[in-house]
Amino acid sequence: MLQVEGLEKRYGAVHAVKGISFEVREAEIFGFLGPNGAGKTTTMKMLATLVRPTAGKALVAGYDVSTQPDEVRRSIGIVFQDPSLDDRLTAAQNLRFHAMLYGVPSDVAVARVKELMEMVELQDRLQERVKTFSGGMRRRLEIARGLLHRPKVLFLDEPTAGLDTQTRMKIWGYIHELREREGVAVFMSTHYLDEAENCDRIAIIDHGEIVALDTPDGLKSQFGGDVITLMTDDPETLLAAIRERWPQLKVRPGSQGQVVVETAEGASWVPRLVEAFVHHIQAVTLSRPSLDDVFIKLTGRAIREEEASAVDRMRLQRGH
User: Fold this and answer.
1) Neighbours of 98 (CB within 10 A)
2) Which has the closest alpha carbon to 299: 33, 70, 73?
């Protein structure tokens, strides 16, 4: 569904996307994982023909984004990170307007609207104005709108940004359902690590470059070994002490003030660490590597909630 080769985007001296290459298969959920500013949205805009590439080639459903933009646009659906519904119109009016723009026959549109609104559980709100909808309801309506003309590829730009955990889980249920029912390929960007676990494959992007691409389990298997997380009220002292005593251990600061030890033999190292530093350690957890661990190993830093955009933070403060 997507074939990308050497895709680049420059804005003057800023090299936003640096020659990336990947493909997305039919009915696959493909995730772009990275912090804000990594190049996720710029890549999506190029693939959706909203921004022209500086170099490279991209085919969407077999059409070239540079030379066949109209054909590409007919083949895709988009759910933007920021709201794009007309909140003065009803849900039905928003959907009918979209159907008209895409040339969907009225009888087909009526049946399609009914089907999609039932899928996103908004069938009882069809005649209500969008301004009365919560943030989660608006996102569900946007997903329904993006599917109305039966696209081959659905682009989701941070689809659950700013939504509460329960709503995010519900939206992911819809995404998996539409993949099964519609056979649509889903290309989504996110900075939520737990959300990326829902993808069939993930490309980790940082500073405009793809630094890893695999399934979630495949990425974590590259990490190797176990992760020991030590809770402490003095992480700098504990970190220095471990490095001095066991310089062979891989040890680093955690993303939330912990000390993290990476080792192939976690179970045997836990009692040794606790015995040696019993007065510094408040709690210990032993786990397999997470996507957060993988991202830190590849980029040297964590994806943190505070890296969300200003708009995203405003949404979170409103509780939508």
Assistant:
1) 19
2) 33
Q: What is the tens place of the pLDDT at every residue in 33-81? A: 888 788 998 999 999 999 999 999 999 999 999 999 999 999 999 998 8
Strands 63-64 and 76-79, sheet pairing: unpaired
C-beta atoms surrounding 200 within 10 Å: 16
Angle between helices 291-299 and 216-223 (to 10 degrees): 60
Secondary structure class of 151 (helix, strand, coil): coil
- On whether the CB atoms of residues 265 and 251 are closer than 8 A, the answer is no
Q: Is 20 helix (H, G, I), strand (E, B) or coil?
A: strand
Residue from 167, 165, 207, 172 nearest 186 by CA: 172
Query: Which pair of tokens denotes residue 209?
Result: 């470059």
Kindly report the pTM of this predicted structure.
Answer: 0.79
Task: With CA atoms as reference, report the closest residue to 59 among 30, 27, 21, 31.
Answer: 21
DSSP state of 82: S
Helix, strand, or coil (residue 302): coil
Tokens of 176: 């998996």
Antiparallel, parallel or unpaired: β 209-214 and 226-231: unpaired
Cα separation, 108 vs 171, whole angstroms: 25
For residue 39, the 8-state DSSP code is: S
101/87 Cα distance (integer angstroms): 18
Amino acid found at 113: V
Q: Are 41 and 189 in contact (CB under 8 A)?
A: yes
Residue 14 bridge partners (DSSP): 11
- Helix residue spans in the chain (DSSP H): 40-47, 69-75, 91-101, 106-119, 135-147, 165-182, 193-196, 216-223, 235-245, 266-276, 291-299, 310-318
Give every CB contact of residue 115 below 8 A, 6+ residues apart in sequence. Answer: none
Cβ-Cβ contacts under 8 Å for 316 (sequence gap 6 or more): 162, 308
Residues of the chain with pLDDT under 70: 224, 302-320
Q: Which residues pair with 152 in a beta bridge?
A: none
